[in-house]
Recover the amino acids of this structure.
């Protein structure tokens, strides 16, 4: 299994817009091979003294931290799926604008080494 992980800050007022955006994107990710897509709205995210999810995404007072992940069967499927996603007109900024500042999103791909 391969996992893409994301941490971002979303304006709290945009919660429903984010939910719609994420739901549309999830359907497309699954169409392109994702096994699952999980989007989590911050509820109990402590602020650290040295670093935290809040500081990592430069969260503003009117924003909420979101933690998300996508599982894929393998990295090759993920690479093909992400490439297809970038070319899909359903995900264009004009059709499905991001209701958050994508420049502050943290993301990465991970090889799963433990899954229980």
């Amino acid at each position: 299994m391969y996992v893409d992980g994301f941490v971002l800050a979303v304006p709290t007022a945009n919660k429903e817009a984010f939910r719609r955006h994420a739901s549309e994107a999830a359907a497309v990710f699954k169409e392109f091979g994702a096994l699952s897509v999980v989007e989590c709205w911050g509820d109990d995210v402590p602020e650290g003294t040295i670093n935290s999810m809040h500081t990592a995404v430069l969260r503003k007072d009117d924003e909420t931290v979101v933690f998300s992940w996508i599982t894929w069967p393998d990295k090759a499927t993920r690479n093909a799926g992400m490439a297809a996603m970038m070319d899909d007109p359903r995900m264009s900024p004009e059709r499905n604008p991001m209701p958050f500042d994508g420049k502050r999103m943290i993301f990465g791909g991970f090889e799963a080494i433990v899954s229980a």
